[in-house]
Amino acid sequence: MQRFPIHLLTYNCGKSTPSNLDFKEKIKKSYGTKDDTEPKNLYVFGFQELDSILNSLDYNKINRDLINLADIIVDSLDEFFNSEYEFEVVEIQHSGSVGLIVVSPFATKIIRTQKSYVPTGYYFTSIKSSCGIRLQYQCDEGSDEYSPRVTEFTFVASHFNANEGQSYMIRRNQDFMTTLLGLEFIDGFSMIKPDTHCFIMGDFNYRASGGYTEDSLKTPKDPIDIHNLSNNNNSQYINEQVRLKDELFLLKKKGSTFWNFSEGDITFMPCYKFNKNTSNYNPKRIPSWCDRILYQSYDKNSKEVIHEYNSIPSLKQSDHIPVYLLIDVPYKPPANIISDGGYLVNPYDDGFTNNDDDDDENEGIGGRLQSREDIYLKLNGSNYYNYIRLLGSITDNIFRIALLSVFTNKGRASVFLLIALISLYKFYAG
User: Where is the Inositol polyphosphate-related phosphatase domain (predicted)?
Assistant: First the structure.
C-alpha cells in the first residue's frame, strides 16, 4: 500500500519569534538523517506565542513574523536537501499569536486551500486560539486501488488555556471542543470532514499532574517526579510515566476529549517548563508534555507508520522545546466519523483501537473510538462561531488599546492628552 509522508512540528516560541541561525540549524533534526534523501510531501509547522501579548493582537505584525519565519524554514529545508528540490510556501494562517505554515517541494500538486480560525481565550480574545488549513493534494498516477486521485488534509495549530488545577484542565477540554466545532471552512464542514485526513498540534497545556485530589481541586494527585524521570531516562519508563501521569492521556482514556484521535508513543522527556536558554526545568511548574501532535485514527487494516515522534531539546530559546512527528499515512483517509445526521459516531463495530497491544493500555494514546451523538460536526447555518469571531475581534482591539495606553510611551501620552482635553472641556463648559 502506498503511503503519504508528512513532517509536522509544533513550537511554543515563548513570546519571541525565532529569527536566528540557531533555530534554522536546530530544526533540521526534525527532517530526519542525512541518509533521508527523499523529502516529505508536506512540511507543516505550528507555532504558539510568536510574539508578545501586545504584538499578538496586531494582525499585520504577526503576519510579517510568519512570512519571515517561512523564509527561514524554506532556507533550512533547501540546505538540508542541498537545494535538490524547490521548496515553496503553500499557505500561511494565523490567529492571535498562533500560526500555521505549510511548505512543500511539490507545491504544484496542491490544487486548493482553505483557511479558518477560532479564538479560545478568555472573553473571546485570540490570546489563546486555534487556526486551520485544509488543502487538496493531487496524487501521482499509478496509485493503488485505495488511493484517490486527490486526497485532502486538514492541519490545525492550537494554543489552549494554561495553569494547573482541575478547573483549568476542564477548560482545556472546552478549548478542544471549541476548536472541533468552531473552525468553519467554506466547504461546509468544521475541523472534521469525511474522506479527509486530520492533524491537530500545539501547546495543549495538559500537565503531568496525575489528576487532582477530591480534597483540593488545585492539588495534583500524583505529579511527575522529574528527578526520578531523569535518573531513569529510557523510552519505556518515560512512556509508562506518561500513561500514569499525563492529563491528556488519562482524559482520552476516560473518553473525555480528543475522541477518535491517536498519538504516537511519547518517549521523550517533558517539553515544558524550562528556564529559558537552559536545560533546567522551572521548579514552579510541573514538568509536562504540553506540546503534542495528534491525528484522526486510521483503520487497523491501513495503519499509519510513525518513523519518529520526538523533541529538540537543544533548542533552548523558549520555556518550551519543539516537538515533531515524521509519519507516513495511507492515501486512503480515515473512516468517516460523521453520521448522515452530522454527529460524531464510531465507524467501527469491532471495538477498534488504533494500537495492537492491550486495549486497556492503549485507550489513551491509541484512542478507543467514541460514539458521541451530542457532538454535531456539520455546519448548520448557525452564526454562533461567527459571532464568537466578531466578539473576539472587538475584545482584541479593546485589549490592545488598553495595553498600548499602559505599556507604551505613545499610549501613555495619548491617555494624558485625552485626560487634559476632557479637563479643559469641563473647565470651560462649567
Answer: 2-335
pLDDT of residue 372: 65
Neighbours of 370 (CB within 10 A): 18
CB contact set of 321 (below 8 Å; sequence gap of 6+): 11, 271, 272, 274, 291, 311, 312, 313, 315
Secondary structure, 3-state, the chain = CCEEEEEEEEEECCCCCCCCHHHHHHHHHHHCCCCCCCCCCEEEEEEECCCCHHHHCCHHHHHHHHHHHHHHHHHHHHHHCCCCCCCEEEEEEEECCEEEEEEECCHHHEEEEEEEEEECCHHHCCCCEEEEEEEEEECCCCCCCCCCCEEEEEEEEEECCCCCCHHHHHHHHHHHHHHHHHCCCCCCECCCCCCEEEEEEEECCCCCCCCECCCCCCCECCCCCHHHHHHCCCHHHHHHHHHHHCHHHHHHHHCCCCCCEECCCCCCCCCECECCCCCCECCCCCCECCEEEEEECCCHHHCCEEEEEEECCCCCCCCECCEEEEEEEECCCCCCCECCCCEECCCCCCCCCCCCCCHHHHHHHHHCCCCEEEEECECCCCCHHHHHHHHHHHHHHHHHHHHHHHHCHHHHHHHHHHHHHHHHHHHHHC
How far is the C-alpha of 116 from the C-alpha of 366, rounded, in Å?
Answer: 27
Around Cβ 209, how many Cβ atoms within 10 Å?
22
Write the single-letter amino acid at 6: I
pLDDT score recorded for residue 146: 56
- Using an 8 Å Cβ cutoff, are 273 and 205 in contact? no
Q: Which three cell numbers stand for residue 51?
A: 510574539
Q: Identify the pLDDT of residue 145.
A: 55
> Bridge partners of 92?
101
How many Å apart are CA 69 and CA 67, to the nearest integer? 5
CA 121 to chain centre: 15
pLDDT of residue 215: 62
Does residue 302 contact residue 330 with C-beta atoms inside 8 Å?
Answer: yes
Q: Is residue 171 within 8 Å of residue 163, measured between CB atoms?
A: no
Strand pairing report for 150-159 and 196-203:
parallel
Question: What residue ranges of the chain have pLDDT lower than 70?
Answer: 1, 141-148, 213-216, 347-373, 379-382, 415, 425-427, 430
pLDDT in tens, 371-413: 666 777 776 556 788 899 999 999 998 988 888 888 777 777 7
Q: What's the whole-model pTM score?
A: 0.89
The pLDDT of residue 64 is 96
